[in-house]
Design goal:
224 residues; alpha/beta; globular
């Protein structure tokens, strides 16, 4: 999976269920995607928060892109949005640590945010980064994913359910690999919106739920 800034709970379900989770950061940056932005609640309504970038381009890889200068502003936004949340005091120091880092590389910055949440949740999955391995960079799309699975001698590959149109079960089966898609079950909890807003950043989940509950959410999915 590509590195996403404080992604939704389903991303962490994928990490939790895997033996090895590969962060796929040596592919081209996608504008208006989820790599450097996500959604939180502000005054009861969903709102995008976006980490600014310098010279971002769809012709540059994620690991070649530089972070901009709005980190302090984002931290203040999260503070204002959630300072009355029940678990603010427990998790805000983690977000402060992330947005206070001096890292300028987008990939490393976002991966730092992912690993911070992984540590908080106690997930012990082995996590590796594709840009540090040079795995089949001359191949693209699903063929590269299949080649990487082969390099890891994988018997199963799990992707988010949104990838169903991108991958062929037959192609993976031909290499002895079972292809699965993870679909997050319905997860709702009291938060600041009058009607529950699904698929917000993990920030919203952590602000409104005790650690034990979030760990239980990690198991609420189906493999298709």
């Amino acid at each position: 999976m590509q590195p996403y800034l404080f992604p939704y709970i389903g991303y962490f379900q994928l990490i939790h269920v895997a033996d090895t989770f590969l962060i796929y950061d040596d592919v081209n940056y996608i504008k208006q995607g989820w790599i450097n932005r996500n959604r939180i609640l502000m005054n009861g309504a969903p709102m995008f928060f976006t980490l600014s970038l310098k010279g971002a381009s769809s012709f540059k890889k994620i690991c070649e892109t530089e972070v901009g200068d709005n980190r302090d502003k984002l931290l203040k936004t999260i503070d204002q949005a959630y300072k009355k949340a029940p678990f603010f005091d427990s998790v805000f120091p983690m977000f402060k640590d992330v947005f206070s880092q001096n890292e300028k590389n987008l990939s490393r910055f976002v991966i730092y945010s992912i690993l911070a949440v992984v540590r908080y949740l106690g997930i012990e999955t082995r996590i590796e980064i594709s840009s540090g391995k040079g795995l089949f960079s001359e191949i693209s799309n699903w063929e590269r994913v299949l080649a990487i699975c082969g390099a890891y001698q994988a018997t199963d590959y799990i992707n988010a359910s949104g990838g169903k149109e991108l991958y062929s079960r037959e192609a993976f089966a031909g290499q002895g690999i079972d292809l699965h898609f993870l679909k997050t079950e319905k997860i709702e909890y009291p938060h600041f919106a009058p009607a529950f807003v699904p698929n917000l950043s993990i920030i919203d989940v952590l602000m409104h739920n005790p650690l034990a509950t979030v760990k239980e959410y990690l198991r609420r999915f189906n493999l298709e």
